[in-house]
Design a protein that fits this description.
The protein has 6 helices and 9 strands. The chain has a single domain, classed as Collagenase (Catalytic Domain), CATH 3.40.390.10. By secondary structure, it is α/β, with parallel strands linked by helices. A hairpin with a 5-residue loop joins strand 5 and strand 6. The strands form 2 sheets. A 7-stranded mixed sheet has the order 3-2-4-6-5-1-9. A two-stranded parallel ribbon has the order 7-8.
Amino acid sequence: MKKLIYLMVVIAILGLIVSGCIPVVPPAEQDESGTLPNEARVQPTTARVKLKSHIFIDCFQVSGDRGPAFSDDFSVYKLFRGGVKWSETPVSYYVDLTDAPNDALGAITKSTDEWDSYTSAVLFEYIDNTSITFDEPGDLEKPYKENTVSWASFDALGLPEDAVAVNVVWFWVMVSPGGVTGRVLNLAEFHIINNSDLPWAVNALGVKGNQFDVQNVNTHEFGHSLFLGDLYMPPASELTMLGYTVIEETKKQDLGLGDILGLQALYGE
C-alpha cells in the first residue's frame, strides 16, 4: 500500500513539472558562455530565464532654432519596460579611456554623481580602467559580464553616423517553454559606447570647438543604465533624458524635475 501511495505522489509531481507548475532550472538557460553574467548581482533562480538586450541610440541635431523655451520643471519621465531596475546597488562599472579626450574619467564620474545626489541609494561605483573592444556589429550582440563606458568607431559598428552614443543594456527575462518572452526580471549589465568618429571635449561649452561634452552626453547615458527611456516632446527639451543632443550642449549635466522623479520612482528618494 505504501509503495502504491509513493508511486502516485511521484507521478503527481512529474505531472506538475511537465505542466510548468513547478519550475526547473535547466543549465542551458544561461548566456552563450554558459555562466551567469555579473556574479556580484542577485540573479533570478526561477526556471527558464534568458538574457536579452536593448540598444538605446542617441543622436545629435544641428544647432539652430529649437523652438520655444521651456523650463526644467517638466515632470514627465519614461520608465522603460514598465519600471525594471537593478536588484542591488551600487552598480559597479569600468572605463576604457582609449580615444577619449583628456580628463574624461572625471567627467564620467561626475555624471554618475549627479544621479546619486537625488536618491539615498548609492547607484554607481567606478571600479577601475579596463580594456574592451567594440570593433564590429557582432560585438554589440554579446554580454561581457561587466558594466563599461568606452569610445569606439560607429562607422565600424554599423551605427548611424549621427549617433553620438549608444547604451547596450542587458536584462533577464522569463521565457515560456514555447520560447515566448514574458516578464522582465531585472537588469544584468550595460555598455555605454561614445562615438569616437565625432569630436569630444570636457567642458565643451568653454572649449568652443564644436565638440560634444563628455559629462553632458554620459549623464544622459547613465539614465539609460537605470532603464529610463528617451523623451522627445518639446516640453522635455531641458531635461537630461531628452533623446537628442547638440554640439557644445552642457545642460544635461544637471537633472531636471522629470529626471529626478523617474529616478526616485525606481530607487526612492
